[in-house]
Automatic annotation (TrEMBL):
GO terms for biological process, alphabetical: amino acid activation for nonribosomal peptide biosynthetic process; secondary metabolite biosynthetic process
AMP-dependent synthetase/ligase domain boundaries: 8-124
Organism: Streptomyces violaceusniger
Keyword Phosphoprotein found: yes
PANTHER family (UniProt xref): FATTY ACID SYNTHASE, NONRIBOSOMAL PEPTIDE SYNTHETASE
GO cellular component: cytoplasm
Keyword match Aminoacyl-tRNA synthetase: no
Protein known as: AMP-dependent synthetase/ligase domain-containing protein
Length: 251
């Protein structure tokens, strides 16, 4: 993927690009003199990628869930080497960092991130229950306005910049897909040859995030290939389409 994309960037003289850190990390180091603006998002970006790609061009980190179609915040120019923050709200959007009672938390205190504004979706088609759970009344906006509960944890820095901290649940993002680690563990553990399983995300190379299933075989042992096909055959979730699964048997 990376080499093919590099050819497109170079041959088509692309000047502005939006991509995920995973995609960016797959592109070989090369000179792209026409690439003047680079926006990254979808998943956390390692500082090493910022150092490699911010020199000589404008590089911005943008944040936003699909339910906000799609960006909510953005940073200024990135330079590295630290992993970038997620900036501040863009025009027309609002962000709130709140506690469990929907009270705004002080600067530096971690809370759950809610977003609101003109880009907010109406809800999930055919899923009224989930819509009611995630799209709630906005107590800080005008009457009738709603805000979206992202499930992300964040905090404000003293300079007015927002930092992403983590999740309130075990949801992660790998190559742009939202993945519930518990769902993956349940799918793998459903095979009779699997005794116990734990699934995590590893990033051995900057920008290359992969799902790793640590499996303790049942007494009869387990064949990794058989378990892999079992999971793929019965799965309809997006994480089944993520390439680069690693399976590591634990004694």
């Amino acid at each position: 993927m990376g080499e093919d994309l590099a050819v497109v960037l170079r041959d088509q003289r692309i000047s502005h690009a939006v991509m995920s850190p995973t995609v960016l990390g797959s592109i070989p180091d090369d000179a792209f003199p026409d690439l003047r603006t680079l926006i990254i998002g979808i998943e956390p970006c390692p500082g090493e990628l910022v150092q490699r790609w911010s020199v000589g061009r404008r590089m911005v980190n943008a944040y936003g869930p699909t339910e906000a179609t799609v960006y909510v915040t953005a940073t200024g120019q990135l330079s590295g080497p630290e992993a970038p923050a997620i900036g501040g709200p863009i025009a027309g959007m609002r962000v709130y960092v709140v506690d469990g009672g929907l009270g705004v938390v002080p600067v530096g205190v971690v809370g759950e991130l809610y977003v609101a504004g003109v880009g907010l979706a109406r809800g999930y088609v055919g899923r009224a229950g989930l819509t009611g759970e995630r799209f709630v009344a906005d107590p800080f906006g005008a009457a009738g306005e709603r805000m979206y509960r992202t499930g992300d944890l964040a905090r404000w820095r003293s300079d007015g910049v927002l930092e992403f901290v983590g999740r309130v649940d075990d949801q992660v993002k790998v190559r742009g897909f939202r993945i519930e680690l518990g769902e993956v563990e349940g799918a793998v553990g459903a095979h009779s040859s699997v005794g116990r399983v734990a699934v995590v995300v590893r990033e051995d190379r900057p920008g290359d995030r992969r799902l790793v299933a640590y499996v303790v075989p049942a007494e009869a042992g387990c064949d990794v290939g058989v378990v892999r096909e079992f999971v793929r055959g019965g799965c309809r979730s997006s994480w089944c389409r993520v390439r680069g699964w690693w399976w590591i048997g634990c004694p």
